[in-house]
Amino acid sequence: MNIARSPQQFAQTDAYATRLRHGEQIIPRQDPVLWSDWTPDAPITQEEARQYDENGYLVRKDVFDPDEIRALIDASDNLRENGQRIRAEDLVTEPGGDAVRTIFRLDDHSDIFNRLARDARVAGIARFLLGDDVYLHQSRLNYKPGFTGKEFYWHSDFETWHAEDGMPRMRAVSASILLTDNSELNGPLMLVPGSQGQFIACQGETPENNHEQSLKRQEIGVPRPETIDKLVQENGLDVATGPAGTIVFFDCNTLHASNGNITPFPRSNAFFVFNAESNRVTEPFAANAPRPDYLADRGDAPRLEPVSGKIRG
After folding, report:
1. pLDDT value at position 96?
2. Is residue 191 classed as helix, strand or coil in its secondary structure?
3. Residues 286, 100: contact at Cβ < 8 Å?
4. Angle at which helices 111-118 and 66-81 pack, to 10 degrees?
5. Residue 313 lies in a domain
6. pLDDT of residue 58
7. Cα 163 vs. chain centroid, distance in angstroms?
8. 73-78 long-range Cβ contacts below 8 angstroms, 24+ apart
9. What pTM was computed for the model?
10. Are β-strands 134-144 and 267-276 bridged in parallel, bridged antiparallel, or unpaired?
11. Residue 86 in contact with residue 294, Cβ under 8 Å?
């Protein structure tokens, strides 16, 4: 892997101060988006590398074969149907109901999803995008059932990971593997291309145990509607759609959201957050205490070595 920029040893000063008392601020990003130079040996094409760098995300289709997709879907269904066997802290239900919304620590609960997190088509690309070895900051399985699936409001993941988890810099990437077909109708991921270039320092101090509320409905650490409107007017709005098996890689600071799902067609995805080894979390920058380990690994999460070959159920 050709790393264009050697890992920087940042002093633990707050480069992205947020949760401000006296109003929201927008500041330019101080870190690269793509941390590696593209070469013919890279795991993505030169055009894909350019798209990721400019837009803050990359959609890759036709990555897995039908047998692999079927095995992942079956494993996802089994986890949801047997949610009562999963420790309570790893489960989030839909607001006002008992339907499973999210299962955290996905790699702990399923061998096949543990294997997926290490797959070269996932972790290998994350290593290239970040120009460093990687580990799992967070993993989860998201469900958005038909008719009742609730929305996820506009936000930058990095704002929360920085404020409440202590992630120092913008050197993390999310990989969302679609386990159902995602169309423009059933609440797919929406993104603002180019928004990764600006950090929105949000207004409002972090309440104690904010994660207990924000996992169901995020109200702290979200941009003002006027700011979202401004960024969309400047950059446009895109939607990440594709058949089951599609992978959406998006930078930690890319502004994104998803609508509620009132169609009969459920939506689900496996979600892995890869953080650079040189960017492991410290103390929170804007919270009195860090979020629990199931939301942000604070221990000795192993460095992931990408694995090639077919995923089997």
Report:
1. 67
2. strand
3. no
4. 130
5. no
6. 98
7. 16
8. 73/179, 73/180, 73/244, 74/313, 75/110, 75/112, 75/113, 75/313, 76/141, 76/179, 76/268, 76/270
9. 0.92
10. antiparallel
11. no
CB contact set of 169 (below 8 Å; sequence gap of 6+): 8, 10, 15, 30, 31, 279
Q: What is the pLDDT of residue 215?
A: 56
Determine the Cα–Cα distance for residues 53 and 47; give it in Å rounded to an integer: 10
> Which two three-digit tokens encode residue 144?
């958005």
Structural domain count, the chain: 1
Residue 244, phi then psi, degrees to nearest 5: -50, 135
Q: How far apart are the first and last CA of the chain?
A: 30
Taking Cα atoms as reference points, which of 196, 159, 162, 154 lies closest to residue 55? Answer: 196
Task: Flag whether 311 is in a domain.
Answer: no
Give per-residue pLDDT as tens, 123-141: 999 999 999 999 999 999 9
Nearest to 258 by CA among 161, 177, 142: 142
CA-atom Rg of the chain in angstroms: 18
CATH of the domain at 131: 2.60.120.620
> pLDDT tens-digit profile of 260-273?
888 999 889 999 99
Phi/psi of residue 254, nearest 5 degrees: -70, 125
Q: Is 163 inside any structural domain?
A: yes
> Which residues constitute the domain of residue 161?
25-37+58-279
Closest CA to 132 of 31, 247, 63, 40: 31
How many whole angstroms separate alpha carbon 132 and alpha carbon 8?
11
pLDDT of residue 84: 67
Confidence at residue 287, expressed as pLDDT on a 0 to 100 scale:
93
In a domain, 310, yes or no: no
* Cα–Cα dist 44/30, whole Å: 25
E strands present in the chain: 25-28, 57-60, 91-93, 100-104, 134-144, 152-155, 172-178, 189-191, 198-201, 238-240, 247-251, 256-258, 267-276
Residues of the chain with pLDDT under 70: 1-12, 83-84, 94-99, 209, 212-218
* pLDDT of 12: 58
